[in-house]
């Protein structure tokens, strides 16, 4: 990142991680408010925006970081090696998070959130370093249109005509050929971070790069906000139009989903920029800055702590229960409505994770994965 950090980007990243922790750690999965759940299949809830927002932010950071270093004359090969190392670290952390605590490597899930971030980051970096902006636009269009054509026209071997149903679509078939025994345990026949659906996810990141180029290529607030606003509205309506025949779907990361979510990311970042960097209303933003400056670390810790809370057993009314259930029962259940109690359980996890995040922020520790 440049010496003068863009506050809006840190806050937008922090809000995204804040939301990710909130939706991943309810007190009870049986009692969750609808906006805090993913769409069952087709469609898009606020929760479905979170992961694409993070990949979009990765793209913005690519432009801010690599663009500045290229202008200083840093060799592309050096930047590529650094990017490869970072991608491997992300993938490694993702596999480690999946493996904890049993380390059942024979059935280890290979895809995952951090793994997709690592792959998308590296591929996007390679394209950014060696392709022109026009080539990036052209390749993004090819990826989105090609993915749509493949998913809606190519027959699925052993299944029949092309379809977009769970477990029987082309992306699921590809996962079954390559990742058998190493997919999401809740499905075992497809993975929401599978191989084929990672291709359109690259475009989500590249749209973030385009957002970053508007930031670095324009010095005035008005120009940045105008272009971000136009891009955001155009992408949202473009995604909605495409969804009429290629539905919004996070699990498949459909092309319409790419456009729609990137449009909201443009508008979300623009709103943060206007509030923070233009109007100077910054007092409310500190908790999100604290989360955003060590976003990957906080996300990794959230996964580890959630697993530990499920493994640690304590006595509760004569029964051995998990620490998570104990805290939920002792603090929230019984006196709050079920969904409110579940939401408070998620907020408790956010407070717990804020402690190490605050410690790192206070000592200016930024763990660069």
From TrEMBL:
PANTHER family xrefs: LD22376P (PTHR31061)
InterPro entries, per database record: HGSNAT_cat
Source organism superkingdom: Bacteria
Transmembrane segments: 7-29, 49-66, 87-107, 113-131, 136-156, 194-216, 228-245, 257-276, 288-312, 341-361
Species lineage: Bacteria, Pseudomonadati, Bacteroidota, Cytophagia, Cytophagales
Entry keywords, A to Z: Membrane, Transmembrane, Transmembrane helix
Name of the molecule in the record: Heparan-alpha-glucosaminide N-acetyltransferase catalytic domain-containing protein
Every Heparan-alpha-glucosaminide N-acetyltransferase catalytic domain range: 5-230
């Amino acid at each position: 990142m440049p010496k003068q950090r863009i506050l809006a980007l840190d806050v937008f990243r922090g809000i995204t991680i804040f939301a990710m922790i909130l939706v991943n750690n309810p007190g009870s999965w049986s009692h969750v408010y609808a906006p805090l759940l993913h769409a069952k299949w087709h469609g898009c809830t606020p929760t479905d925006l979170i992961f694409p927002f993070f990949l979009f932010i990765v793209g913005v950071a690519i432009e801010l970081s690599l663009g500045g270093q290229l202008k200083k004359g840093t060799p592309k090969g050096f930047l590529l090696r650094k990017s490869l190392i970072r991608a491997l670290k992300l993938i490694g952390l993702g596999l480690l998070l999946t493996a904890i605590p049993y380390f059942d490597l024979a059935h280890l899930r290979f895809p995952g959130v951090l793994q997709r971030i690592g792959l998308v980051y590296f591929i996007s970096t390679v394209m950014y370093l060696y392709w022109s902006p026009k080539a990036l636009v052209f390749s993004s269009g090819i990826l989105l249109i090609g993915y749509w054509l493949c998913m809606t026209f190519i027959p699925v071997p052993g299944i029949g005509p092309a379809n977009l149903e769970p477990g029987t679509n082309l992306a699921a078939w590809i996962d079954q050929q390559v990742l058998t025994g190493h997919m999401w345990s809740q499905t075992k026949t497809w993975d929401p971070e599978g191989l084929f659906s990672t291709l359109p996810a690259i475009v989500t990141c590249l749209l973030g790069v385009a957002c970053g180029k508007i930031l670095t290529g324009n010095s005035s607030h008005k120009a940045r906000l105008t272009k971000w606003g136009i891009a955001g509205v155009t992408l949202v309506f473009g995604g909605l139009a495409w969804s009429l025949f290629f539905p919004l779907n996070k699990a498949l990361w459909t092309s319409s989903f790419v456009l729609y979510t990137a449009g909201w990311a443009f508008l979300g970042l623009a709103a943060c920029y206007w509030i923070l960097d233009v109007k100077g209303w910054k007092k409310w933003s500190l908790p999100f800055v604290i989360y955003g400056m060590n976003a990957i670390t906080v996300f990794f810790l959230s996964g580890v702590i959630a697993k530990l809370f499920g493994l640690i057993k304590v006595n509760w009314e004569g029964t051995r229960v998990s620490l998570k259930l104990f805290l939920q029962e002792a603090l929230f259940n019984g006196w709050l409505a079920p969904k409110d109690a579940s939401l408070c359980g998620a907020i408790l996890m956010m407070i717990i994770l804020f402690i190490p995040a605050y410690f790192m922020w206070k000592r200016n520790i930024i763990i660069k994965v």
